[in-house]
Design brief:
Layout: H1 6-21, H2 28-35, H3 39-45, H4 49-60, H5 64-70, H6 78-100, H7 107-118, H8 125-140, H9 150-169, H10 180-195
Helix pairs in contact: 1-2, 1-4, 1-6, 4-7, 5-8, 6-9, 6-10, 8-9, 9-10
InterPro entries: Homeodomain-like_sf, HTH-type_TetR-like_transc_reg, HTH_TetR, Tet_transcr_reg_TetR-rel_C_sf, TetR_C_Proteobacteria
Domain HTH tetR-type: 4-64
DNA-binding region: 27-46
């Protein structure tokens, strides 16, 4: 028996199941079984599958939210910061896409998931909001053009990272044509060319 604390085992099991069979098909019963505990023990730590999903995103995947939350205008170069964001975002979406894609196949399940996540201050809009706030702060510092649409820029960068995960996940081998570091650097450079 694994000697990790029950909460850690539950989050690990949820992560593995969500990656392998998708969020829609993962149940709390299966998570508890894989974690070697009862469903009652799972509910001691988590209100349900939605809270577990948000926990997996925060604790087991590349730390996109943390990176975006830690950005400060005037620190580092804007291009370097955008490159770091693009790299982490591409990895984040590469792992979240297989987990969440199954929700879109079942509208009722998607609605239930949205309701469950609604009160958890989580969602796919938050990284865009955080990146927009960073770019507006850089705009205020004079490092991004005053007339630049920072929301559009944030949406473009993160959308390109999400699209990279989506587009190549369907291909045999799932390998994008451009290495991650090259993709992140060229995306940041191209975006910056339009806003600085």
């Amino acid at each position: 028996m694994d000697q990790k604390p029950a909460r850690v085992r539950i989050v690990d099991a949820a992560h593995e199941l969500m990656l392998s069979i998708g969020l829609a098909r993962t149940t709390t019963k299966e998570i508890a079984k894989a974690a070697g505990c009862s469903e009652a023990a799972l509910y001691k730590y988590f209100s349900g599958k939605e809270e577990l999903f948000v926990t997996v995103l925060a604790e087991r995947l590349p730390r996109l939210g943390n990176l975006l939350g830690d950005l400060r205008a005037g620190e580092g170069s804007v291009e370097g910061n955008l490159t770091d964001i693009a790299r982490v975002a591409a990895l984040f979406y590469e792992q979240t896409f297989p987990m969440a894609a199954s929700l879109y196949a079942e509208p009722q399940l998607k609605r239930r998931h949205e309701e469950g996540v609604g009160g958890l201050e989580a969602g796919p809009h938050l990284p865009i909001r955080q990146l927009d706030a960073y770019l507006r702060a850089e705009q205020g510092a004079g490092r991004v053009r005053a007339d630049a649409d920072t929301y559009a820029a944030a949406s473009l960068l993160l959308g390109a990272c999400a699209q990279r995960a989506f587009a190549y996940a369907a291909l045999p081998g799932g390998e994008p044509p451009q290495p991650l570091d090259d993709f992140a650097a060229s995306l940041a450079r191209t975006l910056l060319g339009g806003i600085s």
